[in-house]
Design a protein that fits this description.
With about 290 residues, the chain is mainly alpha-helical. It is built from eleven helices and no strands.
Length: about 290
Amino acid sequence: IEPLAALGDVREAMAVRPPRRGLPERRAAWPWVLGAAAIAAAVARVQPTTGAMRMGTGVVAGLVVAALAGYSVVKRTRLARGKSEVSRVRPHAVAHMALGTLALGIVVAHVGRHVAANAAAALIAAFAVASASGIAAAVLYRVIPKALSRVERRARLPEDLAARARELDERAFGALTGRSEAMKAVYARWLAPYARAPLGALTLVLGGKTLRGEEKRLRARVEGVLGPRTATLDGLDDLLRLVVERRALRAQTVLQALLRGGLPLHVVAVAVTLALLVLHVALVTRGR
């Protein structure tokens, strides 16, 4: 058939060709975070010399923490979404990071140098965990996607990695079938240990190479040992590709676990912080 004549969807799609455009520029977060950090450092030097000052910094800190918790609501509703090429959620994420940085200085100014062993101390500890986990999550979200893209031939869900590992092992076994004894010796001596090295995933991520670059590096290592005899190894390139991807699966597992594991800790810490904040406000209003 002629697709344009027989298929209406194809005809409609081909009739209008939108102009090619690049992705919109992403809003930078670091100027806002850096500015908030400078303000937080200045605010943290203020010591609560009076009860009114301590009350004022406490009210501001509580409002900022409530605004930070509200980010999760904004991000999951339709209020911040719509037809736009520019992310409508990104500004909220930048504001969340800047407010979180500013909150550190306000809380330090509110607490002062002495902390009593009561509900307020528990609130400070929960806030510290929430802040640390939030900072860690922001760093991981900034670094891991780039590292993950370097060790992936194809994006896979975490639950698919185990099956892919078994598939690669089976393909490696099949690729060795009928090969020369020299090739089998090279696989047993270098390639198999490379694929299953305990710190192989960490080495691959920190090395910063793509999988193709890692294949070239591993091949150069084999050539450095065997020299001209490398040319007689049948199926070497196929096995190099398989063992490099096998090591990369371990790296993907670790990176995806870090990417998925940091956020639940932050959410739980924030929930505990909010609960203790309500308790703290109730105790303060009752003069305790």
